[in-house]
Amino acid sequence: MMASSYNAKEEDANHPGAANHAGVVKSKKPDNTAFKQQRLPAWQPILTAGTVLPAFFVIGLIFIPIGIGLYVTSNNIKEFEIDYTGANIDNPCYNCAKNFSWNSTAQCSCIVPFTLEQPFESNVFMYYGLSNFYQNHRRYVKSRDDSQLNGDRSALTSPSKECEPYRTGEGSPIAPCGAIANSLFNDTLQLYHIDSNGTFNEIPLVKKGIAWWTDKHVKFRNPGGNNNLTVAFQGTSKPVNWRKPVFELDPEDPENNGFINEDFIVWMRTAALPTFRKLYRIIQKKPSTTPTLPSGKYVLNVTYNYPVLSFDGRKRMILSTISWMGGKNPFLGIAYITVGSICFFLGVVLLIIHHKYDNRNNSADIPN
Amino acid sequence: METQQECACDKLVREEERHVKANARDYNESFSYADNHIKTSKYNVLTFLPINLFEQFQRVANAYFLLLLILQLIPGISSLSWFTTIVPLVLVLVITAVKDATDDFFRYKSDQQVNNRQSQVLISGSLQNEKWMKIRVGDIIKLENNQFVAADILLLSSSEPYGLCYIETAELDGETNLKVRQALTITSDFGDISKLMDFDGEVICEPPNNKLDKFTGTLHLRDSKHPLDNENLLLRGCVLRNTEWCFGMVIFAGLQTKLMQNCGRTTFKRTSIDKLMNTLVLWIFAFLICMGVVLAIGNTLWESWTDRNFQVFLPWDDFQSSAVFSGFLTFWSYIIILNTVMPISLYVSVEVLRLGHSYFINWDQRMYHSQTNTAAEARTTTLNEELGQVEYVFSDKTGTLTQNIMVFKKCSINGQTYGDVYDEFKQKMEITEKTDCVDFSFNPLYDRGFKFYDGRLVEAIKLEDPAEQDFFRLLALCHTVMPEEKSEGHLVYQAQSPDEGALVTAARNFGFVFRTRTPETITLCELGRAVTYQLLAILDFNNVRKRMSVIVRNPQGQIKLYSKGADTIIFDLLDPSNEDLMYTTSEHLNGFAGEGLRTLALAYKDLDEDYFEVWMKKFISASTVIENREDQLAVLYEEIEQGLKLLGATAIEDKLQDGVPETIASLALADIKIWVLTGDKLETAMNIGYSCHMLRDDMNEVFVISGHTLLEVQQQLRSAKEQILGLSRVSSAGHVEKAEMFADGSVYEETIIAEYALVINGHSLAHAMEPQLEHVLLDLACLCKTVICCRVTPMQKAQVVELVKGHKRAVTLAIGDGANDVSMIKTAHIGVGISGQEGMQAVLASDYSFAQFRYLRRLLLVHGRWSYFRMCNFLWYFFYKNFAFTLVHFWYGFFCGFSAQTVYDQWFITLFNIVYTSLPVLAMGLFDQDVSDQNSLHYPSLYKPGQSKTSSSTNDGSYISDQQVFAVTIATSLVIVVNVQIGLDTHYWTVVNHFFVWGSLIVYFAILFAMQSDGMFGIFTSSFPFVGTARNCLSEKSVWLVILLTSVVCVVPGMAVSFLRVELFPTLTDKGPQEQSLRRVRRTSSHRSAYAFSHQQGYGELITSGKNMKMSTASSTGSPGRTPQSSTWIENMLKRKNAVSGVSDEITGAPAKTD
User: Is the keyword Disulfide bond assigned to this protein (chain A) (predicted)?
Assistant: First the structure.
């Protein structure tokens, strides 16, 4: 970089007058500090048999119990999953799936019976699952306007360009805009328990509390507060695929309507992988000792609005209890056990190698 | 600076001849010559930003990122927000700009300082103080003693007789000895202002150029022309010495001075790590393109098979008409996303590391020399890690290996040696610091710096033993030293070679004090009595004669010839009666030579008055002839120097710098080959070779190549090589084939166990460097443990370095102290200058400078090794973390429809490299030590190039469904893994490391929560969509379990592998190397002549002419030994000097230092 090797200061260095001016020649001796002399006190971990082998054994000994614990916990979690896509002819929803049309106003519903072999204790979580659904596609992910969803008025009337082609419809801005909102999952699922008498008892499904608090209270907000959404959303149009506008998502509960509708919020939190599940409802445990969902026969009543067959997608309904570690996830436990075992095994192998080669190079490590 | 240089060159092109008129500013200004203002700074306040940015974007990396930024602004492609690129880019640009600005500011300051120096200028009839920058071409300026010359000026007159003045040219060529410049006779009496005012001469001369030793021009004065040459010119950068004042006329000013014209652009040296880095970056770029292509193809396929049907929920964009086009766009999107493999901060980080390493070199107390108050200095900050890979060291001798200080060590007088110290059992004792030295206080004029340990010699003197007395009388008389007695008894000798100084000083201490000289007398103080000798003739030294003599008449009226010279020469001239003494002395001389001392034999002769009269007449007539004067004089000298009587011999130690043999031994153990390249004589060079144990008597063979023709040299080289390879029996017929067969001697190199040494002189080297022989030379040289090249010119030094550099692909280091080493220092990969003694030239050209050769050991074995080690670890880790970071995206591409969706939060991408992970890796790169400095020095074989390691990255998927949670989990795992990994890679955990590693983790979480806080979301809704994710996801226990699992899974394999490596293939660092003792070899004596006398011809004449004596006016005539026309004499001498400098730049006006 330096274009010149000439430095006028150096021309001065030998100037006998220069030294006289300063009186005593300044010593250029570098400071004797630990930092400058690179003698900072330091901890020097060295990979020796004494440190590595115990580390492997310790990792093994910690991981295997954790893994077993996780596995057992995961196994205690009860989970039930049923596919109601209707891809096959023997599926109750086959007709609904086959006859689906965007334009029809008539709703098609189907009844899917199933049996729970074991009773589900405590709170039961009800999920819907989609497969082969690319909620993580870049164009899909970015097709939303967070300002609009946060209740920003200007964004409501002129949504972000990212929302294209679901930005405007019928001449007015779409609220909520974008592909994510447009593809909101809109099947309605109802659960019935068939008791010993053969009567259908509808199981109460709680639809609040399924979204994160931060999402519901910070990230998503209705324009102009929660009262009178009809006025607030005036001048906007509903997303193309929707049957009803956003302010009618839950007309009975103003705390769950518009942008802060929890089903909507859950959907807007895009999935990382093309196969995913989203929380749909919570079945609260009963105050009595009876299980939340006793074993027996059940019926899932599906209002079939959501087409997935065109892209070979699948829809599932999942019932699951949870534990301290979340939902059923045997993989984590198995992974822990595997890693722990491998570490332990490696420890043993390395120990053998160490002993075998120990005699060969018994010279001392360099003292540091 | 560059621009200035260029514009100076432009002027040079236009200007074909320079016309300068004294005292005529108007006339001179019409040519618009440069004024004396210098500017080495590059920018000013206004131009800084545009010029600096322009320069920075010329770097490939910066330009690349600019391109990337542009790509990101295209909406169809943009997969990342613009800030992910612009934040790091701006950061990098700002850091570099700040560094450039400070550098430039310091240059500006030093320019200012120089420009504002005061100088006395003759303006309108009086001397006025002016700033340097105000001086114009044609001005007449006055210089005083010890002042810097302000511009290139023509010397007009001075305080000294004959318009002589003395200058020191240390800044220009590194020589500290004084040089003589002389004003033209016609101007030399311009001592007062009125004469100078009237001076209206015009100088017509060559245009500005960078040749320091050439100048041609003419002075037109009142219709007469006077030729001008370099001897009339004082160059900017010189210092006026021993001259009260002088006047001069400015010829070249400012940037057109020869000094500034010489400040050419220093070539930018690149290290092999630089090259490795560039290659790696290229490979990574290729890898990036490959990944992009794979993902683009994936995208095309996916779009046509899957996404076609998914359009219900995700319709195609308008422009996305075909899957192929979508793939094309995806390619660019992925280039943007995956650009994090391209290490943008790498270059900056490497710069920072190198700067840090340089500071550690500057700060190292163990490379500080307190005597000269010089600390080591890394003048270039870019070569540090190269110091860890040096294979060849090329060293200068004088001033580098030796101190250029000669010490009178021993002598042999009349068959008796003095100088050794014996204990009571007559055992020779080692002389150490503690040994008592002889007390010279009986002699009031003794030199306190002189040390001698053998008390017997003083006793002998005190007993007035005539042999001893004559011995020292000779030393006090036979020389060309000039005395300077500043105050009574405070004598300073101005010796033109350090050998002479040492001998005269020795005589002084032993009671034969050389006090004053006039052209025809020498006054000694012999044991307290003042004795004046009449100096009749000086029979000067030259390289053929290898001796000098003086003829003096002592107060008793006897005429004596005293002679000193090489033993072989003197022994031939001895009277046959001296034979016994000659044998004894010869034995002593061998002993001295065996100890690596430089020897001289001393002899005298009583001359008959009549004989001398006759000889003197012949001598005077021969002195005045013009043709063949030298030859005639030589014959006369020969005639009178016959039948000498031997007095004895002296042994002078050419003092090695401290710790040289140890350093060389330890570098040799580190497999660093040391070649000595010196301008000195073969004998001297070999002598030094022996005394620093580069040559040893137990070596199998020391090949001396000294052929004068190409054929001879070829023969010698071949036979030496064959001898080494054991192929000497091969018939001469097979020569050519053989030569070809072992053309690549490197195969054999490893198998040669025996130790050989090669000594080659300059003439032979010139032949050996011919294209057809250079391979033979190189192979032979590489088979030898030691290579010494003597009598080489600076150009040849550079050629030798070039040869090795070009053919061996090894890192070379050149170390030297003088101007003659500059070319070699510039040629080698690394140039080291010895600072603190000689001038600045070598230091200015060097990359590193320190005061003592022995610091080279610490520079290479400690700093170099650490730098290399740190840099390798740093690079490996840097690439590792970038790959780990980026490959996640590649993997994720298969799950998100190859849509170039990022896994992480955009802010994480922005900050990952520059905030979360940069400091710990920097701390490692700065502070890591695998082996302490003591051990590095103790086990030189630790110094071997490290192997490059390969990186592996492991990434797992996990089961978390929400994308933002997924992003935070992966990001957290990544930050933890990367920091744990650096923890494992760090060998030396200082406070700073702890602070940075833990700090990075804390900062990561702090920023994570801050950026995902409600507040940030409230302010910039669209930039921070991750609101609350961290809080929600990190409160999940399973997320932590996943993070723990991934961290362990990523770290354990690396740990196991490195453990296995340590166990199975231990390197020297891991296991204690076998104790390598630094061999200290005591050399037995061998029969070698060690004559050395670094003298130059011509000074005898200078003395007898009285030209250089200020007091000479008193007795300027009537002495028989002098030629009356002294001015012709000076011209002779100058002519001779020019002739010498014509042959090689090396000896230009450097009589004190033949090296």
Answer: yes
Flag whether residue A132 sits within 8 Å of chain B, measured between CB atoms: yes
The angle, 0 to 180 degrees and rounded to 10, between the axes of the packed helices B771-783 and B710-725 is: 30
SS3 of B222, please?
coil
**Pair B532, B556: CB distance under 8 Å:** no
> How many CB atoms lie under 10 A from the CB of residue B255?
23
Residues counted in chain A:
368
In this structure, chain B runs to a length of 1155
Average pLDDT in the B788-806 region?
A: 85
DSSP E strand boundaries for B317-415:
377-378, 390-395, 402-413
Q: What are phi and psi of A189, to 5 degrees?
A: -110, 135
pLDDT of residue A322: 83
Annotated catalytic residue B423? no
Tell me if A93 sits within 8 A of A110, measured CB to CB. yes
Rounded to an integer, what distance in angstroms lies between the CA atom of residue B246 and that of residue B239? 12
Q: Element (H or E) spanning B22, and its range?
A: none
In degrees and rounded to multiples of 5, residue A104 shows phi and psi of -65, 140
Which portions of chain A are predicted below pLDDT 50?
1-23, 361-368
Token duo for residue B1095: 């003298």
Give the CA angle between residues B370, B375, B377 to the nearest 5°: 165
List the strands of the sheet with B164-168, edge to edge. Answer: B178-182, B164-168, B239-241
Q: Contact at 8 Å (CB) between B1092 and B684?
A: yes
Least confident of B442-451, B609-618, B707-716, B1095-1104: B1095-1104
What value, to the nearest 5°, has the Cα angle with vertex B431 and ends B427 and B432?
Answer: 135
Give A246-270 pLDDT, tens digit per residue.
888 888 888 888 898 999 999 998 8
The answer to whether A52 contacts B1055, with C-beta atoms less than 8 Å apart, is: yes
Tell me what the mean pLDDT of segment B339-357 comes to. 79
| pTM recorded for the entire structure | 0.73
Tokens representing B477?
């008389």
User: In this structure, what token pair is assigned to residue B974?
Assistant: 């990544």
Neighbours of B998 (CB within 10 A): 13
- Partner A, chain B 277-316, Cβ-Cβ below 8 Å: 306-307, 309-310, 312-315
How many whole angstroms separate alpha carbon A70 and alpha carbon A331?
9
Q: Does B989 touch chain A (CB under 8 A)?
A: yes
Report the C-alpha gap between B245 and B192 in whole angstroms.
11
Does B817 count as an annotated binding residue? yes
> Is residue B1071 annotated as involved in ligand binding?
no
Kindly state the tokens that stand for B569. 């020469």
Q: What is the DSSP letter of B230?
A: G
Q: Is B129 a known ligand-binding residue?
A: no
Cβ-based neighbour number of residue B947 at 10 Å: 8
- Confidence band (pLDDT; 50, 70, 90) for B1145? very low
Answer whether B916's CB lies under 8 Å from B861's CB: no
Choosing from B396, B847, B905, B930, the catalytic residue is B396
Alpha helices in B344-444 (DSSP H): 344-363
Query: Which has the closest alpha carbon to B473: B507, B523, B434?
Result: B507
CB atoms inside a 10 Å sphere around CB A235? 11
d(CA B300, CA B88): 32
* pLDDT digit string, tens, across residues B705-715: 888 888 888 88
Residue A50, CA distances (Å) to A57, A350, B934 in order: 12, 11, 25
Measuring CA to CA, how many Å separate B495 from each of A192, B58, B404, B1106? 117, 55, 13, 16
Q: What does the alpha-carbon distance between residue B615 and residue B640 come to, in Å, rounded to a whole number?
A: 8
Residue range B442-464: average pLDDT? 82
Contacts with B1019 (C-beta within 8 Å, 6 or more apart), sequence order: none
Please check the confidence at residue B457 and state whether its pLDDT lies above 60: yes
Higher pLDDT, B964 or B1076: B964
